[in-house]
Each structure stands twice: as C-alpha cells, then as structure tokens.
Amino acid sequence: MSSLLELNHITKRYPGVVALDDVSVSFESGEVHALLGENGAGKSTLIKILAGAISPDEGAVYMDGELLTNITPALSAQKGIGIIYQEFTLVPTLSVAENMFLGKEYRNGVFLDKKAMIEKAREVLKELDVEIDPSVPVKQLSVAYQQIVEISKTLVNDVRVLVMDEPTAPLTNAEVDSLFELVKKLVANGVTIIFISHRMEELFQIANRVTILRDGQFIKTLDMRETTSGELIALMVGRSIDEQYPARESHIGETVLEVRRLCAGNFIKDVSFSVRSGEIVGLSGLIGAGRTELVRAIYGADPITDGEIWLNGKKVDLKSPAASIAQGVALLPESRKEQGLVLKMSIADNLIMSTAKKLSHWIFLKKAQCAKVVSDYIAMLRIKTPSPTQKVINLSGGNQQKVVIGKFLAAAPALIFFDEPTRGIDVGAKHEIYQLMNQLVADGKAIIMISSELPEILGMSDRVLVMHEGRLAAELDKEEATQENIMRFASGNAAVS
Amino acid sequence: MKESKINQNLRQYAISGVLVILVLFFGITQKSFLRLDNIMNVLRQISVTGIVAVGSTFVLLSGGLDLSVGSLLAVTGTLTASLMVNYQVAPLPAALIGILAGMCLGFCNGLLVQFFGLPPMIATLGMMTSARGAAYLISGGLPIYDLPEPLKFLGKGTVFGFLPVPVIIMLVSFILGWIVLETTYLGTNFYALGGNPEAARLAGIPTALYRVMSYVLSGLACGIGGIVLLYRVNSGQPAAAEGMEMQVITGCVLGGVSLSGGEGKISCVLIGCLVVGLLSNGLTIMQVNEYWQQVFTGAVLILAVCIDRLTKMQHVKKVKK
Question: Which residues make Cβ contacts (< 8 Å) with residue B114, sequence separation at least 6?
Fold first, then answer.
C-alpha cells in the first residue's frame, strides 16, 4: 500500500472555535479508512476541505505526492475525489441516469445523448451488480437504492477516493450488508474509502484503519485489528465510559398504556400490547416494519382506523398530538430537524413550544416563568449553549436532540415514545440520553423506545416488541431477547428455527 | 457566538438604517421634506397599506401568502358604501358588516389552504379575482358616492389638530399585532407553525386552527383598511386598492419577514412600510417622474433582499463547521 492522499498539518479556524487544529492524516490506496469522533470533532470540516467547499487556513493536501492548492469542488471531482453526503443530493423527479449525469451530460451538439447516458449508467450499475432501471425516476426508489444511485453518480467519473458520511444511517441490516459488498468491490478496484459512522460494530466489519479526532485535534490512527470498541470510545470522548448502557434497577408498576387491536393506515394491522410505569419497552423491527407508523398513530399524529387505546384504565380518543399531550403522552419524533425542531427559532422558543399555553396567563406569556423553565431544562439536560436565545440550527446534533427532549418533558408526560432517540448523535450525548431515560422510568414514567440499533434495544429495554410488516411479530422478555431472536422475528422467519 | 449575535441584530435593523439614510438624504436635499405636515402626509399615505400589512405579517409568518388583500379591501368598501347609500343601513352596522365580510373571505382563504390543500398562492389568487368581481357586482360597476357624514372622521379626521385618524388606526393595529406576536403564546405558535409545521403539530399546537386564523386576521385587517380607505377617498370604489398586495408584500419583505415563514419582526414591517412611503414621497418632492419612482421602489426591494441574503449566507458559513 502507498499513500494516495495526504493531509499535512491542516488547521481551520472559525470565529471562536478551531475546527481543525494541526491535523495530519494519510490515506492509502485501496483501504477503508474510518474517521471517528464525536459531533464537532472536525470530521465534517475535513470532508469539506477535501470536497473543496472550504479552504484550510494552514496546511497542505497532497494527492499522489502532488500538492493541491486552491481546491475547488471542480478540482476535487477532477482529481477523483467523490463524496457521499448524509443528505442525498439527488433530484427526485429526474431519472437515475439523468441524476448520474447531472452537470456532466453527454451531448450531441446541443442535444442530449440520452441513449449513451442510459447505456453508460447501465454499465456502471452492472459493475456494482445492482438491478436498477436507469430510466426510472429516483423518487420511486427506496432509500437504499437511492444511495446506490448516489454512489454511482461518483463512479461516472473515475473515482479514486470515495468519502462516505454515515452511509448506513438510513439503511436496514440487509441493505447495510449489500452496501458493504459494494464497498469491498470498490476497494478491490483500488478505490480508497473514507468511511464515517457512529456505529462501532460496522467499523470492525468494514474498516482497515481508523483515525480518531477529538475537538479538532488528531488523536491517533489505529489498525482496526489491533483495537477494541472500548479503546475507540475512550479515545473519542477522552474519558472512559464504563458501561455503554448505564445499569438500572427496574421498578415496574401499574399499566399505563394498553393498545387493543389497533389498525392504522393500510399498514398497521391488529396490534395489541401494553406498557407499565417504570418500564422501558423496546420496539424493534426492520426499517419499514411500521414501528414509526404505529407510535404516530397512537400519538394521534396519523389517524387510526380501528382498535382502542386505554390510558391508566380509561379508554381515550387521542385524535391529535394536542389531545395526547393533554393526556400526558409525548412523542420524540424520529427526525429531529424535520419533525422535532423549528430550526430558525431560539432554544428558548423551542423548549416552551409544547407548553406555551400552560405558561400563559389568559393569552399572555408569563416571561419570568418561561425563562425559568428554559434555564431549568438547559441545566438539567446539560445543553451546551452560550445563551437560550441561540438558534437551534447552530447547535450540534446531540444538543439539538436534547432540546427536543426538553420540549416534551416540559409538558410533564407520563408516557413517552422515543423514536430513534440517539440517531446520529455522539457517544457522550448518547450516554446522557440513556441516563435520562433511566431517570425518567425511575420517576415512574413509562417509555416506548424505537431503535434500529439492536445493542441499544438489548441494553435499554425491560421488554422487547418486534414488528414485522405492520404486525406485532413477537413480545420478548429480557431473557428471551437476544440479537438472533429479534432478527428472526423481525425478518419474518419465526416459524423456521 | 458574539459575532453571530451582532450579525443577527444587524440584519434585523438593516432596514432601520435604510430608513435613517432616506430621511437624512431627503431631509438635507429637500427643505419641505421634514416639515410636520409632510411627515403626516407620508404617514397618511401608508396608513391603509400598513393596516393590511399587519394582517399579512401573520399570514407570512405562518408560512402562507395572501394575494387577495386588495380585492378584500374593495369588497369591504363597496359593501359598506352600498349598505349605507342604497339600503339606508346605519353607518356603524354597515361598517361592521363590511369588516365581517372581509373576515369571512379570509376564512374562505384559510379553508381552501388548510382543508383543500391548495397552495396559498393559488387559493388567494382565485379569491383575488372573484372578490374583485364581487366588488364590481356590489357597486354595479360604478363608484358609490354621497356617503353619510357620521364616520367620515375615519378618513379625514385628525386628533390634536395634526395626527390623522387613519395613522392612529394604523399604529394601533401595529401595536395590537406586536402584543399578540411578542407577548402571547398565540404569537409563539404562529412563529412555530411557519418555522416548521410538522414539528409544531407534533408539539401539540393545533396548526390547522392557527393557519386558518392567520387568514382570518388578514381578512380583518383588510376589513379595517377597507373602511379607512372608503372614507379617505370618500366613495366606494370597486377598483380600489388594485395591486395593493404587492405594496404590502414589499413592506413586509423589506421589514425582514421571510416568505418561507417563521421569521421576521412586526416592528420592522412598520419600518418597511415607512421606507416605501418615504421613498415615494421624497421622490415626488424631488419631482422625479412616476415611472422612475416605480423603478426605484423595485430596486430598493431587490437591494434590501440581496443584502439580507448576503449577510445570511455569511452567517451560515460562519456557523457551519
């Protein structure tokens, strides 16, 4: 292996913060090199420098020993650096081929050479061994296929370094496997992959080496075979987290929620279960199994077509989120930016969003009381911010998630749905959220937690519900709940064992 | 962090800077500009636009758009005039019925947007055309003259001998709007709805109600503005306030209200309306011809929004890392 891409003493400063501080990393050809660090560690800054989106204040980038100066997005692409961002950059209404050739269309004079593009697209997709019709609009594809299109888009150019920012976050386990197959194929062709993920297990599956960043500083580059997840976490957070999932003594009480034969949409069929106070119930299943749809229906965000919901022994009609909140039910939605926060508003305004009416005298907000609630939650959740008037768009993912949690806790719920509470947030913040959930159940609240990370389900739940294609496939107690068991029910293979 | 805060404030108050520059420029170059009667004149000229802009601020903050304001004004005006002149209804009830009609049409806008899912631009564009037609039908296509005396002070009256009543009505509208938006939970909810409707709904805010309410408030503002306009021109004109939606949107946007919703301060909307009024007045005093005035007004709008965009872009660059 030889060094293909080298970053030498890169420094990038923003007002008030050094995003990268004298960082040097070298990437070899044909390796999968993981970048690991908490949110704000400097990974995104590093990628943006490679992409030519920003330029470093100090330091140099070498490719094949050649110094690259003034990197622009065009130069970056020309040198064979491809970037797959977390948020896709596809145009949903255009076809697969059109997306792949966006901005670099084949032409016959002034006319598009559609035939040639479709031909080339088919070729690229074939190389990847995927069955996608290049003439289909991208919006008709599943998220996993869209990602493949996103990757193919970079392969139209001769890509030599492919940066993947959290590529597995939106994928199911099976889809992750095929993504990894694809990565291996690219590596075999000599492509260097720079891989960013918060899921530790994946790194051990796919990466050769790992570089850890913390607070903008280079910490260490390690061979994946010579390290453990414990060591990596310790290096990332700069302290050791004794247990990833803090221990909890469960004190389970009365039934809080009972769902009877619930149907919703065209999809959720005949779901019955109950949750007791002091209990965390994990809701597991593959992506698309209907977990989010189920909790949204219970919460009143989507209509239910049949079935009953009982709260504390009384049948209730939760027609809307407003009705649910009034009944002491809260939902932490799956996507904090789209559903949880008003990014343009301040931390304070977001925190009181659910409770503004309660914090008012007639219609007038009681400013002092609002300020107290806000400062209480900022302190309790340890939201890192210089001021409550800071807009949430300026916060890191973990702190944003804490704002969403604070907003719902302010409404004093007795039953809380957490939909993917730790998605895309760093290890330190994850740990704090786990501790908070433990605290909540210790105070007698009931929690239902949806998570696509099995270790999280196993680590946090008193009981696990598994969904498969809109139905409840299994209810497992702590002893029965193992990775294998859950996966068996989640994939619909319950009969085979 | 400190820098970004200053930057935010700068953006918010950039429009005040524009106002100060305009006042200084016209004040120094044109002797008659800063005279009390001229200032009152400007305020009187922007009063109707200002009243309507208060309602539109609610719609825009909630992420909507109301193009029908001019037509609603005409319906209120002609309906009130017709009731008084042709049906001998007493002035006060007639005015209240006119305002109520404005609110009802606003309510229809809200229903179309909320429950039939029409894009606000389409719903209110339809309303703009239909309501204008209604105004012509009500008045029989001709202006309605000979309004009875009692309410004439609404258009022509002054308080303390110098402060025109329409200006007072405008200022009170802005103050009420400010109170609702800045000091009540209703205001917080309007901002949340415009900033992120789904997040607002999941947070338990009855977003459907607020969306409809924003259009009803716009209808109310049009109703009040319609009555004031009726007495300012002293006749019920079916063609009144044609094109007013653009003046109103200009005022709001100059004041920093985001067309995508959730952002903007009503106090700055007042300043935005003032800038439009002062510009037109100052240019008139300078004897710039009317066509050039239009060119300048448009240019100021584009310039203000460009500055806003540029500072925002810089802001984003700084914060993202």
Answer: B208, B211, B212
